[in-house]
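User: two proteins, same treatment. go.

Assistant:
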Amino acid sequence: MDNDEPQIARSFYKIARFSGQIVGIWPQHKRSLLSNLLCGFAFVVILLGAVGENLYGFLNLSNLVTALEAFCPGSTKAVCVLKLAMFFLHHRQWHEIVQRLRGMLWHNRGQQAQQLLVGCSTVANRLSLLLLSSGSVTNTAFNSQPLIMGLYRWWSQLPGRIELPFNIILPAFATESQLFPFTYLILTCSGFCTVFTFSFVDGFFLCSCLYISGVFRVLQQDIRQVFADLHDGDSIDAFTPSINARIRLQLGQIVERHNAIIDLCTDLTAQFTVIVLMHFLSAAFVLCSTILDIMLNTSSLSGLTYICYTVAAMTQLFLYCYGGNHVSESSAAVADTLYEMEWYKCDATTRKIILMILRRSQRAKTIAVPFFTPSLPAFSSILSTTGSYITLLKTFL
């Protein structure tokens, strides 16, 4: 790392960057040929899986277990196609957001501020790694299951059977003996590209939210610092004109930074609106389907696969809600921090600046999309809705 780089540089979008580079959608001002080829390949194989698996599910609705086994990964891939397209088509806007956020994090070079920001980044990277790991384990389980069953049939001298990692509609020639290994490999790539896509997009959202939360918290530290050591003890009832001038100067800089953070949060929300909305709309269905699969599936191997799938799906949803919750709480905490200061000792002009920050901070900034606001209460609400769906469906089974 360059000596001029702050501590946060080492962990800045570390896991999300890795996943995004694998599928060629890490935000860049000017995309390279390699990134376009990787993104094009990922888009094609994920789209193939999304269309084929959902079509298989609709054609086999008479068998609920078989249909759900197709819909679960198929719906995830359909949402990932949207995520991939949104990041590819708007790569310049995403790059601008990354650069603006990078500038804010690099600006706060104080040791205490950097420790706070590195702590936020560490949590974000660990949760992103958890999502990548759970998704990879789930995809490995899907791809290993037919191989394990094939090995079992060979060992038991049972008749062989063509099995693919996912229930999917494909042209007849794709499952012929000559092309079967290639088809299996393509579907395996489809699964892994899906994992890297959602681990990048969802991890990018989480990291962005926690970085914004960290910058809000640094702002709170700076507000406390403005009022620290202004005078000796509490012997005075009002600040002198020179102290008020000093406070106004520092608060003016804080107002500019506060506005910049809020504007960045607004732009991030605008970019993520469609992605978050589609993810939340599909979340209850995906969780309901996976849990029903576990309950109805008679194969222990399939049951284990869908347990892994449930963990990955819940991790995805939790990351959105956890990130959104941190943004709203940290933005509202700015007002609490300011109110705790000795604002009552300031003159009228200084109080007006403080009141302006207070009024804007009291309206907590949220990553709100139509019908949903990612937060921990929303997470529990979706889990509750999923439980209600499962209870209702069990009455018809």
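Protein 2:
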Amino acid sequence: MAASLSNVDEIRDRVILGEFGVKNVHSTDFPGNYPGYDDIWNLKKFKRNFRVDVVHMDENTLEFDMVGIDASIANAFRRILLAEVPTMAVEKVFIYNNTSIIQDEILAHRLGLIPIKADPRLFEYRNNGDEEGTEIDTIQLQMKVKCTRNPRASKDSSDPKELYLNHMVYSRHMTWVPIGNQADVFADVKIGPVHGDILLAQLRPGQELDIVMHCVKGLGKDHAKFSPVATASYRLLPEITLLQTVEGETAERLKRCFSPGVIEVENIDGKQVAKVVNSRLDTCSREVLRHDDLKSLVKLGRVRDHFIFSVESTGILPPDVLVSEAVNVLIAKCQKFLTELDSTEME
């Protein structure tokens, strides 16, 4: 009976990586599926089991663990981060002069993909059909660049960097032009491209660009330029179990089958013994299963409800702010759904 319960727990809680496939990939812990298990959803039980642990965070990247939640909810956070957290991006490009070799539409597309450092929470969505922007829904940027010859360049030089001035057009040439009272409202904020070293075009003497851009608030599901993240992904926590003691040269070979830092060989009573140190670092390559004498020594799995999230911001907002905004979006979706249910019941 105990063995049977242990097997049920494995089916419920672990994804097993086999030599020719992956087992237990679907969630099965729904009410009534397993005799003896109370799988009715309970708020107290959820609060007790659910947790979020921040593993690493810097200016643009965040790694955190979300434990005790179903894959559908974890995936909802991932998709919201990609497509439903708003940002500001170039939407309209007014080209007054473009004598470079880049076509107008290609240049406009490149400008649209430049991340704009502006807090979207301080702006409103522009109404459909509005041609003119206002200070509450539009950021105006301008770019005026003209390439000329460098009068101080040596006659023998063939280097464009020495021969020409302003021959490389970078995103730092996009300057903010305040609309209405924006200069006062954003006096302490530097609005403009996140990165100033993004190459937009190359010019030669006599060629110039004179462009005005309007940035609006939008969502990644409408266009990828509004997506606030470079990547947002998750993986399940790997679990590596040694089924028996592994010693000597076999232990060294076993160590080499995994990512560095996953398995270490320790000296115990004069013997070299393999030990699982940090299964989190494993990439789940299943290399060990290619070796006939090693594959029976280990069991590879993944914890079903332990998600390792990696969020990389484009720099518009810090990654921790993006995650909290994604939570707010999901809360709003749930509230809308409940409101719709109530209105349907009333009808």
